[in-house]
Amino acid sequence: MRRISFQILGMVMVLCGLMGVLVGFTDVTSGPLSRSVHEAPAAAAQAERDLRLLLQLGREHMASDIRFTVKLQGEAQAGTRDQIMASAERVAQALGLPAVTAGSVHGSEVFRTEGLIEGLPVQMDWALTQHGGSYIRVMLTAEGEEQGERMIGMQQRVLDELAHAGVDAATNAAVQGYSPREEGAAETIGRLEGDLGRTLAMRMVEDYEDGNTVSRSYEAPALGTFVKSGEQPIHMQLAVHEDSMKKSSRITIGFPVITVEY
């Protein structure tokens, strides 16, 4: 089972100006990124199972206009600026992405590239840290179930290339779409909990509600990746936002947490 370090995810806050806002966490501890005791093959198989489950949940609980996001993130080995940039260029070339460009985000230098791989948008940011290391995040997005299936294979390809570059990357994924029913946020998330509880052993550990938005986090040990809030592992997060214009609720499911705006 993989634990995503919040020391690592802290760098997402540096990159959030490029790729979105990190939401849904409170009181989170930091720690080293840990590899599954079953090593890479088992971890890859678990990641694929989790993504397929996420696709299934989107298909069962959301209308047809579904968006999937997978973020692969981790720390790279220490090196000089030129060495880190060269590593970023090698990964970009191996994936078939355009050449990286150097820029600055909140005072940190970032090597960035984005493009299409097999028709799927892919964006890579490789940021230098203040202590001579670096942090990488690759984001894949897909619209609809067909692209989502394609993305499952793509994320393994990206993980393999990152491993060749010495990056032990963890996966964070989310599916988002509108409920096919006209119902409020509280009613929607209650129904989701009931449906998911029949296929996944889960226990709510955090609950947040603000007007027309409800967000809850769960321990669900069958899932392969977790973060820690205090001493509590979190494997899944649900969020529902009631859209008064659409008279429906936007559902977001994150494994282990939601890192897209909901």
UniProtKB/TrEMBL annotation:
Gene3D superfamilies: YwmB-like. Pfam families: DUF1779 (PF08680). InterPro entries: DUF1779 (IPR014794). This is TATA-box binding protein. The lineage of its organism: Bacteria, Bacillati, Bacillota, Bacilli, Bacillales.
